[in-house]
UniProtKB/TrEMBL annotation:
<dbReference type="InterPro" id="IPR011043">
    <property type="entry name" value="Gal_Oxase/kelch_b-propeller"/>
</dbReference>
<feature type="compositionally biased region" description="Basic and acidic residues">
    <location>
        <begin position="11"/>
        <end position="20"/>
    </location>
</feature>
<dbReference type="Pfam" id="PF24750">
    <property type="entry name" value="b-prop_At3g26010-like"/>
</dbReference>
<protein>
    <recommendedName>
        <fullName>F-box domain-containing protein</fullName>
    </recommendedName>
</protein>
<feature type="domain" description="F-box">
    <location>
        <begin position="30"/>
        <end position="76"/>
    </location>
</feature>
<dbReference type="InterPro" id="IPR017451">
    <property type="entry name" value="F-box-assoc_interact_dom"/>
</dbReference>
<dbReference type="InterPro" id="IPR015915">
    <property type="entry name" value="Kelch-typ_b-propeller"/>
</dbReference>
<dbReference type="InterPro" id="IPR001810">
    <property type="entry name" value="F-box_dom"/>
</dbReference>
<dbReference type="InterPro" id="IPR050796">
    <property type="entry name" value="SCF_F-box_component"/>
</dbReference>
<dbReference type="InterPro" id="IPR036047">
    <property type="entry name" value="F-box-like_dom_sf"/>
</dbReference>
<dbReference type="InterPro" id="IPR056592">
    <property type="entry name" value="Beta-prop_At3g26010-like"/>
</dbReference>
<feature type="region of interest" description="Disordered">
    <location>
        <begin position="1"/>
        <end position="20"/>
    </location>
</feature>
<dbReference type="Pfam" id="PF00646">
    <property type="entry name" value="F-box"/>
</dbReference>
Length: 394
């Protein structure tokens, strides 16, 4: 891990090659930590910003032993590690920028090299607990998928799912088990079958880390419907947004469909269709403690609403303050991600209307807040969040 913590109101990223002044007096006395007992040193190291945790492990043999110990990991698990960190992933060699909500700082975060051809080849991010999943194109234009721990930078490349070479639209989701060291990745794809002019062939592919194999759960032909770029796995069910580009009326052009991975329920996709609260809006799906949450811009409101799915009904739990997202829905585009109880929201059309800040919503406290993005241009970054954990391996 390479990272330096920055005040939240400073520009990020900052050039590490620039010389920095020493922050301590060379003639002053330094306090040694050699005499600290292990339990006290564990408490001190556990308070470090997450970008410095891995770097602390290379200071000396003792610090490495402590940061790799089971007791230290338990302190992290029972401390602040459940607060998800937000990451803006750059392109063209720009470093990623990570926001730590506990210490209210931005830092540089060196991610694994995904070996994709260029930024636009990254088709999607998905995250669950301490792992992120990235789907894109390799240098040869071949579909590529990898799962990694962004804190330890341990990465696993997964063989492409079957029959996805000619897909036009795809959405990615990952679900990490909290009881076993395993995870599942779903990839929903839509493509136009050969010899047809209308309609899409929709397939749901599932990867299981225990078997290290893909399986195609279902393949159906849907006239006029395709998947959007939003999906989530909650409690063994894959949810994804549907879109009908051929519908004459704008009503019900968007909707939610679901597929039960266990096979306990009927998997008639159209029968599971649930309209979204605002069919004119643009929505994002996320798993918040096994509850499906929809974040969507509200047409004519210039704001954002948050809903939780209960059965087949949406329940609105919050709306953003009036001044948080000016211009949203006209030129600016909603972007959002979340884990556990914290949702990150920002907007921007990528060119003329970059969002000046990141807004957050705490599901427990029902509280909105925002943090300045400084000069980070929204068109140059894609965002995701993760829960920093040292002990999880892809």
């Amino acid at each position: 891990m390479e990272g330096e913590t920055l005040p939240a109101d400073q520009d990020v990223p900052r050039d590490d090659n620039k010389p920095r002044e020493c922050e301590c007096n060379a003639e002053g006395s330094l306090v040694s930590t050699d005499w600290f007992p292990d339990d006290l040193l564990e408490q001190i190291l556990a308070c470090l910003p997450f970008a410095d945790l891995v770097r602390a492990g290379v200071v000396c043999t003792r610090w490495r032993r402590i940061t790799n110990s089971e007791t230290f990991r338990k302190k992290l698990l029972h401390g602040v590690s459940h607060r998800p960190r937000f990451v803006l992933h750059g392109f063209l060699g720009q470093p990623a920028c990570a926001y730590d909500p506990v210490h209210n700082v931005w830092c540089k975060l060196k991610l694994p090299r995904f070996e994709f051809r260029y930024y636009s080849s990254i088709l999607g991010f998905a995250s669950s607990t301490g792992l992120i999943c990235v789907y894109g194109k390799s240098e040869g234009g071949i579909d590529q998928l990898c799962v990694c721990n962004p804190l330890t930078r341990i990465c696993r490349h997964i063989a492409p799912a079957p029959s996805v070479e000619s897909q036009l639209f795809a959405t990615l989701a990952i679900s990490v088990s909290r009881t076993t060291p395993s995870y599942r990745v779903s990839l929903v794809t839509s493509k136009i079958p050969p010899g047809t002019q209308v309609g899409y062939e929709l397939s749901i592919h599932l990867y299981d880390s225990e078997t290290e194999m893909w399986k195609t759960c279902t393949t159906v032909y849907l006239r006029g419907w395709r998947c959007c770029a939003e999906s989530a796995i909650c409690d063994g069910v894959v949810y994804f947004l549907f879109f009908s580009p051929s519908t004459a009326s704008r009503e019900n052009r968007y909707g939610l469909v679901m597929y039960d991975l266990s096979g306990r329920c009927s998997n008639d996709l159209l029968a599971s269709f649930v309209p979204v609260p605002h069919p004119h809006g643009y929505g994002r799906l996320m798993n918040m403690k096994e509850k499906l949450v929809l974040v969507m811009d509200i047409d004519g409101y210039n704001g954002v609403g948050i809903w939780v799915l209960n059965g087949r009904e949406w329940h609105e739990i919050a709306r953003s303050p009036d001044d948080y997202f000016p211009g949203l829905g006209s030129n600016a585009r909603l972007r959002s991600c979340g884990l556990n109880d914290l949702i990150y929201i920002w907007s921007g059309d990528g060119h003329d209307h970059p969002s000046p800040y990141i807004a957050t919503f705490d599901m427990n406290q029902k509280q909105w807040s925002r943090n300045n993005l400084a000069t980070v241009p929204s068109q140059d970054y894609k965002g995701f969040c993760f829960e920093p954990q040292l002990d999880i391996v892809p």
